[in-house]
Design brief:
The complex is a heterodimer of chains A (366) and B (146). Chain A has helices spanning 46-50, 58-63, 70-85, 91-119, 125-145, 167-189, 193-199, 207-212, 218-222, 229-232, 253-277, 330-334, 338-342, 347-357, 361-365; strands at 6-10, 22-28, 31-38, 154-155, 158-159, 297-300, 303-305, 308-316, 324-328. Chain A has 366 residues and is of the alpha+beta class. In chain A, strand 7 (303-305) and strand 8 form a beta hairpin. Helices cover 24% and strands 29% of the residues of chain B. Chain B is globular and about 45 Å long. The chains are: A alpha+beta (366), B alpha/beta (146). Chain A binds chain B through residues 39-40, 43, 45, 47-48, 209, 211-216, 225, 227, 229, 232-234, 239, 300, 302, 309, 311, 313, 315, 323-324, 326, 328, 332-333, 335-337, 365-366, and chain B through 1-2, 51-55, 57, 59-60, 68, 70, 74, 77, 81, 102-108, 111, 115, 128-132, 139-140.
Amino acid sequence: MSTELVTMNIGPIHPSTHGVFRMRVTFDGETIIDAEPIIGYLHRGSEKLAEERTYTQVVTLTDRMDYTASMTNNQAYILSVEKLSGITPSERGVWLRMIAAELQRIAAHSVAIGFLINDLGAWHTPLLYLLREREKILELFEMMCGARITNSYLRPGGVFMDAPDEFWPSLNRFLDEMPNRLDDIENLLTDNEIILARTQNVAILDKNDAINASITGPMLRASGIDWDLRHRNPYDYYEKISFRRPLGTVGDNNDRYLIRLHEIRESLKIVEQCLDLIEPGPVQPEEVPFLVRPPIGESYVPIEAPKGELGFYLVSDGGISPFRCHVRAPSLINLTLLRDMVIGYKIADLFVTFGSIDVNMGEVDR
Amino acid sequence: MTKVLTGSDIEDILSSKFMNQIEFIGDDYVQIINNDSLDVFNYLKIDQKYDLLSSVTSVDRISHFEVVYHLTSLQKNESMVVKIKCGEDRINPNLKSVVSVWRGAELQEREIYDLMGIMFEGHPNMKRLLLWENFEGHPLRKDFVS
């Protein structure tokens, strides 16, 4: 019987596209033979907008890039500004932003796992368990800075306000409870037969291909490369912290899921170590001016964001706003190999693979 | 700690084979000439183990455009910055695509073409990435008026 190829449009409005992602996919029956991502539906021109704002005002723009990980976006930007203008941050400010960044990583990975399971067809039940835990982190952020998602908590030199007294007992309660909640989630998901059947040996990413395509973050570690910038190029005070770096062996969708689960546990340990080391003091040095005016120059400080290497390339012409502000967005670059990863698999594997890459459209389009 | 190479460190690496390719040595970067840039990048990737292309981006320097490459070596834990000037003026900036060296440049070069209007020769799919096909102009250029 003669058959015909079908080209179909998927997205941009679709519950499994994590926002407004669109793909033009060609099928032979149910098998994918070509897939082309089409992006730009959430493009807001953040890089251009940054050229007309002062260095401190740009912080609010970075919140809206990867909106599941605002704190790490703030951190990447602030580190770049500090290097550009030679500001030495205050100690307590750095510890506070490390606590915030690791809590944010837990929240972002929870969202990533939850929506991956959602894409597998387990509609909303596992997702809600994970979002419940994320909710507690958002409440902690609310105590820290008054905002839940778009935090804008960091400033050049540290953070803009100290965490209130009631923050610390709440954080300790969260750290006590979270490992048990993680055990529950792991009991529910990790050995689940359907999840194993759907994710193991699907969309295997070879490590050399991954490096060549500039893929970073949990995706690279799932392929077995030990490259975590918190360990290899410690920024802030990560050199004083010890943590394990879970690695994958196969590089399939299941590995990408497991890596994130293990990284949540490691982040909890990092927060605990930060709590031991943090000491009272100012959260921002007094000499940091309200209007930062860096000398002529440029800076790029990569950090390990939940999705991979995130860095802001800032060029200064000596003025009060960046001459050029480029975002090295891990979500966008991790999509480079999506086409190669899904070819030959079925339509149902397409969304699982897309979910396991964990992109955030706010960061892809900026 | 990742060792960030200074301009003279990068010069030492390149001077044995590509002395005449170096156009300018900055504090923390080296600017190479546009012609035969792929030879330099292939040398850096294969012989010098700069296997990860961290980022490709572009800057509108008013008088000309420049493209900035951030390279990282996972094995040696080193990073360097290489720049290329796209011609002496603003008319038809173009240079060679590095997709054949590092696949990671694929989407980033499309983004540069889209927002800054720099053409990359040899790119497998040189079209706009974020904006739509009939959009006029390139928004990140300093002379763009919306």
